[in-house]
Design a protein that fits this description.
alpha/beta, 2 domains, DUF2268, single chain
């Protein structure tokens, strides 16, 4: 198993110093091209096929990454923060540790080489604000990304977020991803990933996607989530998983739920499952959602 990196601050510095008409292509071909295998699976082109069309910059703007057009001298301090090798060391160690735990439990890593990077988050983006300044993505095996507004707190929390994403990375080496994936799979997947992060780092590193949920609302949240387990398609799932506010931002249907209620439900569902079955989380990670849900039907009542 090998974990490589794209060292983003060098590229951010190059973008910062570039002429405005050069920034986008440096971002596309130096920062994002190494992850092309990931973008291809999402059908995201490096450049738009027609003026104003969808491309990697537009996609990443939606996720909350800092757009290249705004990478200028005002971001110098944030870029310099990313030069701190201790950040990269802690993130690399988090990913390697998360992967090795699977090997130690006899779970084969079908992917042998992994690529990760750390990017700057856009502080104006609604997702960035709701996620308290840091986030990640690891759903495509072999590729792991994190992004943050550099601060003492986000730098401390990013390795746990990358362990969460590494869990996704291994799960989807075994579970086939489809565009008509249902809410049940997403709830189980996110619950496994967040429990995995806390298994390694401790519950004090629970993400805001869990801690912000008012536990007094959980009985109602669980009822709504349970009724929607068979809902399919990302547009339909978003309201359940991320809450109404995020659904509204993307003009998707609402489900009557607060911020990331689906994540919180998944976390407590998997926590319950692990305590009931005593199955190591590494082995639980590669089980079908239906098999896990079949063991914990009483969780919903």
């Amino acid at each position: 198993m090998k974990v490589n990196r794209v060292f983003s601050p060098d590229i951010y510095t190059k973008i910062m110093l570039a002429e405005p008409d050069k920034k986008d292509d440096i971002y596309r071909y130096e920062m994002m091209m190494p992850f092309k295998g990931k973008w291809d699976l999402y059908h995201i082109p490096m450049k738009p096929t027609h003026p104003g069309g969808y491309d990697i910059i537009m996609a990443n703007n939606r996720l909350g990454l800092m757009p290249p057009s705004e990478i200028d001298s005002k971001l110098r301090e944030s870029i310099e923060a990313l030069y701190d090798e201790s950040i990269w060391d802690s993130c690399q160690k988090a990913i390697e540790t998360a992967l090795k735990r699977f090997e130690d439990q006899g779970v084969e890593l079908k992917v042998k080489e992994y690529l990760y990077s750390i990017f700057l988050a856009n502080p104006k983006n609604a997702y960035t604000i709701m996620n308290e300044g840091y986030c990640g993505d690891g759903g495509i095996p072999g590729y792991i990304m994190g992004w943050l507004i550099p601060s003492a707190d986000t730098i401390k929390r990013l390795p746990a977020a990358l362990a969460h994403e590494t869990n996704h990375n291994v799960r989807y080496q075994y579970i086939k991803w489809t565009n008509d994936i249902n809410l049940a799979e997403m709830i189980v997947s996110e619950g496994l990933a967040e429990n995995y992060a806390t298994t390694i780092f401790g519950e004090e590193f629970l993400g805001p996607w869990v801690t912000k949920t008012d536990m007094e609302l959980m009985p109602l949240i669980k009822e709504i989530i349970h009724d929607g387990l068979n809902v399919t398609g990302f547009a339909e799932i978003t309201g359940y998983l991320y809450g109404d506010e995020m659904a509204e931002l993307q003009q998707f249907p609402k489900a009557g739920l607060p911020y990331c209620a689906g994540y919180a439900t998944g976390y407590y569902l998997i926590k319950y499952y692990l305590e009931k079955t005593h199955i190591p989380i590494e082995k639980a990670t590669i089980l079908p959602a239906d098999e896990i849900l079949g063991e914990v039907e009483e969780f919903w009542t």
